[in-house]
Each structure stands twice: as structure tokens, then as C-alpha cells.
Design a protein that fits this description.
By secondary structure, the chain is mostly helical. It has helices spanning 7-24, 32-61, 84-92, and strands at residues 65-68, 76-79. 54% of the residues lie in helices and 8% in strands. Strand 1 and strand 2 form a beta hairpin. The protein contains three helices and two strands. The chain folds into two domains: 1-61; 64-93, no CATH class.
């Protein structure tokens, strides 16, 4: 599974974010700047929370993370040390916007 998003996929997600906001708030009206500053950010946070929860559950199911219950508090998550090497391979194989690790230049 590639973690990269194509330009068209990003456009589609932004469109879904904007429409999702207006569907949940049918009386809403805003300027372009307002949509950019507040509405899209709100949608990204809303989507990000749902996606993050789903991904966390998947990482737990796959054995990469462990979920621990804290008395009187929210659950906490930590790396399953037995899966450390495999987790490093997964991260190293993902797409990143940062500098290349081997010092190669484009």
C-alpha cells in the first residue's frame, strides 16, 4: 500500500472536506478565505481524528502498537518492541516529503 497521495486524490479529498462541512452545516455561508482558514481546517481535523483512530486500531491489530488502559484515564499507545524492526522497515518504505536518508539528491 502506497502512502503517497496524487494531486488528483488530494483535490478529491479537499472537495469532500468542503462538501462534508456544508452537508453537516446546511445553513452555513462563508467567503473563500473563511473556508480556507476555518472550514477546511475543521474538516481536516474531523477526518484526521476518524482516520487516526482507524489507523491506530489497524496498527494494534497488526501487532505494531500496544494499547494500554490507564486507571482513571484515557488509553495510551506504545510501540510493541517485538515489532520494532518490522515497523522500521515499514516506515523506511513509505513516501516522505523530507530529505532522503541515504544523502542522495534529486
Amino acid at each position: 500500500m502506497s502512502l503517497c497521495l496524487t494531486f488528483e486524490r488530494q483535490r478529491e479529498r479537499i472537495a469532500v472536506d468542503i462538501l462534508g462541512y456544508f452537508l453537516r452545516n446546511p445553513a452555513a455561508m462563508d467567503s473563500f478565505e473563511g473556508i480556507v482558514r476555518w472550514r477546511v481546517m475543521e474538516e481536516m481535523v474531523h477526518r484526521s481524528m476518524a482516520v487516526t483512530e482507524d489507523v491506530l486500531n489497524g496498527l494494534i491489530a497488526d501487532g505494531y502498537l500496544r494499547k494500554e488502559l490507564v486507571p482513571g484515564g484515557n488509553p495510551v499507545y506504545r510501540l510493541n518492541q517485538e515489532m520494532r524492526d518490522e515497523a522500521q522497515r515499514l516506515v523506511a518504505g513509505s513516501c516522505t516529503d523530507g530529505p532522503q536518508k541515504d544523502g542522495a539528491q534529486e
